[in-house]
Amino acid sequence: MFSALPPKQGLYDPQFEHDACGVGFVVDIAGRKSNEIVRRSLQVLVNLQHRGAKGCEANTGDGAGILLQIPHEFLKAECKKLGFDLPVPGNYGVGMVCMPRDSHSQKWCMEMVEAAAVRAGQTLIGWRDVPTSNEHIGESAKAVEPAFKQVFIGRNSYIKTVDEFERKLYLIRKRIEKTTSELYFGSFSARTLIYKGMLSADQIEIYFPDLKDPGVTSALAVVHQRFSTNTFPSWSLAHPFRYISHNGEINTLRGNINWMKAREAQFESELFGEDVKDLMPVVVEGGSDSATIDNALEMLVMCGRSLPHAMMMLIPEAWDGHETMSDEKKAFYEYHSCLMEPWDGPASMVFTDGVSIGAVLDRNGLRPSRYYVTKDGLVVMASEVGVQDIPAENILLKGRLQPGKMLLIDTREGRIIDDAELKHRISSERPYRQWLTKIW
């Protein structure tokens, strides 16, 4: 749905698709929400426009988008106009849903979402039609353009934490994905909201008027401009995805997907219990390499691992034979190599769960990632320099990610956590060397 991707035919096979893009983020280290973060991020996106691509029509882009924290005050005011109230942040989730444009199919899709929410013990609060303006987009994009709706799901009182609620929303979405391909969730979360489409960077604010509203605030935002090197653009395959956005490609994709499928029969989860079977297949067919690694990362996080822990599993450092690496970190990578093969290839990967945000570079360092830390408490990271006009006197620190290294900003702790501290913390949480000794 929402894609002009042709089927396998002749010498063409969709499994060999790759892409290379522009990616970046802006975050307030202290977690202060403002419209300035959104405005800065959209400027980063426009300044990355040359990293994207367009079709034969100058106004049909390969894809552009922005991920931000849920702008509660803005959505609360909009929903009030529609006759329903939103509870306090964390007590509801928002789904950005792409649907067919005909009213009959939309009604069927809405009923399906509502039924899945009720089955999971949650409450439907209401629906909102997302305003869009397609006058400036190309005919190719219009031909597969979806209708955008936001669904608001209430968190029932027996769910004690936002993390637990996130798992319920994940379960609802996975059940719907197994039932139909008529609709697509760009995001479905109590923390984050994604606006994206088959657009170019300069079209996204025009297409989504919400993004022009000064009431839209966030403490962090991820932006992406897509260059589908050998691929066909799609509304659903535009970035950001629900957890990641990246520049590069995963070369080991076919093996990663096959191993994931092979292990699904052994999946168990204390957090999901019998419902774990509804999470399969983990990888949604027809996704790009970016969408596929996002599926894998989401599953690892939802089943209890921290976001940086899951990223270390998926994109490990070059650890085997590393003479200066600590034994506890080697033990971490060796242990997890029994569970997950590296998702390898030239890639600069940005990731966020709406609370922390970071980036990791592939172990060969074949994609650039540059960052600035400002004296007024912002971090700006992108696949190249020059994405923001920051006065030199306001720059506290600037640098670039090293091969296999990770940068993390935790807005809850209000600080930057460097690679050494972060990986020491994660690799020392469990006795991995002891476990390996017992295995072997």
List keywords for this structure.
Glutamine Phosphoribosylpyrophosphate, subunit 1, domain 1; five-stranded antiparallel sheet; 440 residues; alpha+beta; single chain; 12 helices
Helix and strand arrangement:
Elements: E1 22-28, H1 35-47, E2 64-69, H2 72-82, E3 92-99, H3 103-119, E4 123-129, H4 139-143, E5 147-154, H5 162-179, E6 184-189, E7 192-197, H6 204-207, E8 220-225, E9 244-248, H7 253-263, H8 289-302, H9 307-314, H10 327-337, E10 347-352, E11 356-361, E12 370-374, E13 378-382, E14 395-400, E15 406-410, E16 415-417, H11 419-427, H12 432-439
Antiparallel strand pairs: 1-8, 1-13, 2-7, 2-8, 3-5, 3-6, 4-5, 9-10, 10-11, 11-15, 12-13, 12-14, 15-16
Helix pairs in contact: 3-5, 8-9, 10-11, 10-12
Would you count the extended β strands for me? 16
Specify the helix fraction band. Answer: 25-40%
Task: Describe the global form.
Answer: globular
SS field, number of helical segments? 12
What does the average pLDDT come to?
Answer: 92
CATH topology description: Glutamine Phosphoribosylpyrophosphate, subunit 1, domain 1
At the fourth level of CATH, the homologous superfamily is Aminohydrolase, N-terminal nucleophile (Ntn) domain
Helix and strand pattern: EHEHEHEHEHEEHEEHHHHEEEEEEEHH
Please identify the top-level CATH class.
Alpha Beta
Kindly name the structural category: alpha+beta
Q: Please identify the oligomeric state.
A: single chain
Uncertain residue segments: none
Query: Hey, roughly how much beta strand do the residues contain?
Result: 15-25%
Biggest sheet character: 7 strands, antiparallel
What Rg is obtained from the alpha carbons, in whole angstroms? Answer: 21 Å
First-to-last CA distance:
47 Å
The second-level CATH architecture is: 4-Layer Sandwich
Give the strand order, joined by hyphens, for the main sheet: 7-2-8-1-13-12-14
> What number of domains?
1
